[in-house]
Specification:
This protein has 20 helices and ten strands. It has helices at residues 10-13, 27-37, 41-54, 59-71, 75-88, 93-105, 109-122, 127-139, 143-150, 182-188, 191-197, 208-214, 245-249, 265-275, 296-299, 307-310, 329-332, 347-356, 366-374, 415-429, and strands at residues 173-177, 201-204, 220-223, 238-241, 281-286, 315-319, 337-339, 359-363, 378-382, 403-407. A six-stranded parallel beta sheet has the order 7-6-5-8-9-10, with helices on both faces. The protein has a four-stranded parallel beta sheet with strand order 3-2-1-4, covered by helices on one side.
C-alpha cells in the first residue's frame, strides 16, 4: 500500500509502517531514525536498544525496532514490539495500524483487519487504516467493500464537482488521471475502453516513459505528452482517478479484452531477429522492483537466488531489469543473463522486447503488468502475502489470462519459488507443461 501521509521518515514510510508523531522523544531514538533513513539498520537497532536500556517502555524505540523487524520478515518480533506499545498506549491509533501491517505480512488477515479497524475507529481520518482494510478485502476477493474503502486514498480534497461517478457521459470529455506507480497505470488503463463505450471522449496524460506505449490504447481519444496543454476548446468536462474506475464501472469488473497494450510491429521484428540467434526458449527476467515501493523488500529477490534458472537446459535468459539492480549483472551473471533493457528508451521499447520473447519471469513490478497487458506468457513470483491485486491461493490471475503465479509458501527466502519456477520451465521445454 502506497504511503499517503507523512511518517517517521521517508525511508520508514516505504516499509508499510507509520512512525509519525511519537508520544515521547529520546536522543538515541533520534539517532536510530537517522540511521534508519540512511539504511544502516544494524546501527538503528543498536540505537533503539540503547534507548530501551534507559526506558524499557519507550514507545518510539519499540516502533523503530518493530519497523526493522518487519523489514527483515521477523514478523513475530515486530508483533511483540507493537503489542508492547499498545499495552502502554492502547488508544494509539498508529500502533494499531503498525500491528495490523505486521499481522498482514505474516498472513494473519483476521488479526490485521481487526487492527486496521481499531485504528480507523480511534482516528476516522487515518487514511492508511482504511487502505489496510481495503487490502485485506481485496486479497479475499471482496471487491465491493475493498473498492469503497480504497477511495479513502484520495482524501477529502479530491471530491470536486468535476468528479465522474458513473453518470451517462453523452460525448463529454473526461480526463483519466494517472496515479501511483507505472504498474498501476498499466493495469488500470484497460478501463479506458469501458469509459469510451459509456460515451466518454477519453483524455490521458501518462508519465513520459509510458506515453508512446499508451498512445494506441483502445478507448483513448487524446493523449497529452510531456505536460503540453490540450488544444483550445478541448478541456475535460469531468475527470476520474484511473484506479477509481473499477468501482465506478462496477466492483470486481475485469475488462477481458487482452491484449489491450500493443508494441510497434517494426520494433518487434527487430528484436525477434536479435533473439533468433540464441537457442531455446527466450525468457526475460526481472528480480527487483522500484526501491520506493511500500513493500519492495518483500517483493524483490536477490539476484544470486536466480542461479537455478540459469542452469535450465534449453533456455536463453535476458534481463528486463532497470535501475541500480541491473548493474549487478556484470558481476554476478555476466554471461548467463544478457541485458536488453539497457537498450530500451521507454516502455514502448520494452513492450517490443517482451512481445518478441517467449516468456517473462518477474517479481511483482510494472513489467508483470506490461507483459500481462500485452497478452504474453508471464510468470509472477510473489511473496507469502502479496499485494492485494494477486489475491490468495491461486496460480492464475483474473486480471491477466496469460499469467501464472508462483507464491512463497511462507516467510523466508525465495528458494522454494525459484525451484518451482525452474521445475516448470524444464517441464515446458520438454512439452510436459504449458507456459500458461
Amino acid at each position: 500500500m502506497r504511503r499517503l501521509v507523512s511518517s517517521m521518515a521517508s525511508a520508514a514510510s516505504v516499509k508499510g509502517i507509520d512512525l509519525s508523531q511519537p508520544p515521547r522523544r529520546h536522543p538515541d531514538c533520534d539517532n536510530g531514525k537517522r540511521l534508519f533513513r540512511e539504511g544502516d539498520l544494524d546501527g538503528a537497532v543498536c540505537a533503539f536498544r540503547r534507548a530501551l536500556g534507559e526506558d524499557p517502555d519507550n514507545v518510539e524505540a519499540h516502533d523503530g525496532l518493530g519497523a526493522i523487524a518487519l523489514i527483515r520478515e521477523e514478523v513475530n518480533q515486530a508483533v511483540a514490539h507493537y503489542r508492547h506499545v499498545l499495552r502502554r498506549r492502547p488508544e494509539f491509533a498508529r500502533a494499531h495500524y503498525n500491528l495490523g501491517s505486521c499481522l498482514y505480512c505474516g498472513g494473519d488477515l483476521d488479526g490485521a483487519l481487526a487492527s486496521f479497524e481499531r485504528a480507523a475507529t480511534l482516528n476516522p481520518s487515518f487514511i492508511l487504516a482504511n487502505i489496510g482494510r481495503a487490502s485485506v478485502y481485496f486479497l479475499r476477493g471482496d471487491w465491493e467493500r475493498g473498492w469503497a474503502l480504497y477511495e479513502s486514498r484520495l482524501g477529502p480534497g479530491e471530491a470536486n464537482e468535476r468528479r465522474w461517478r458513473g453518470e451517462p457521459l453523452e460525448g463529454r470529455r473526461i480526463l483519466l488521471r494517472c496515479e501511483q506507480g507505472l504498474g498501476d497505470i498499466l493495469q488500470f488503463v484497460r478501463y479506458a475502453r469501458l469509459v469510451s463505450k459509456m460515451g466518454g471522449r477519453v483524455i490521458l496524460e501518462p508519465p513520459a516513459r509510458l506515453a508512446r506505449l499508451l498512445e494506441k490504447t483502445p478507448g483513448i481519444d487524446t493523449l497529452i505528452r510531456d505536460g503540453m496543454p490540450l488544444p483550445a476548446g478541448n478541456d475535460p468536462v469531468v475527470d476520474c482517478p484511473l484506479m477509481s474506475l473499477a468501482k465506478v464501472c462496477g466492483a470486481g469488473c475485469y475488462p477481458s479484452a487482452v491484449p489491450y497494450l500493443h508494441a510497434d510491429p517494426a520494433d518487434i521484428d527487430r528484436w525477434a531477429k536479435y533473439f533468433s540467434s540464441f537457442p531455446g526458449l527466450k525468457v526475460g527476467v526481472v528480480w527487483s522492483g522500484e526501491p520506493k515501493h511500500s513493500r519492495n523488500e518483500h517483493r524483490s529477490i536477490p539476484l544470486p537466488a536466480l542461479e537455478p534458472l540459469t542452469r535450465v537446459p534449453g533456455v536463453s535468459l535476458f534481463s528486463l531489469q532497470r535501475g541500480a539492480a541491473a548493474g549487478m549483472l556484470t558481476t554476478i551473471f555476466p554471461h548467463q543473463i544478457r541485458d536488453v533493457e539497457a537498450h530500451c528508451r521507454d516502455f514502448a521499447d520494452t513492450a517490443a522486447v517482451i512481445t518478441a520473447l517467449d516468456l517473462v519471469i518477474t517479481v511483482d513490478t510494472s513489467i508483470a503488468h506490461a507483459a500481462g497487458g500485452l497478452g504474453k506468457p508471464v510468470w509472477i513470483l510473489l511473496p507469502y502475502v502479496p499485494d492485494w491485486r494477486w489475491l490468495l491461493d491461486r496460480s492464475d490471475s483474473p486480471w491477466y489470462p496469460t499469467a501464472r503465479i508462483f507464491r512463497k509458501p511462507g516467510l523466508g527466502d525465495w528458494n522454494p519459488v525459484i525451484h518451482a519456477a525452474g521445475t516448470s520451465l524444464s517441464r515446458c521445454i520438454l512439452g510436459e507443461e504449458q507456459l500458461f
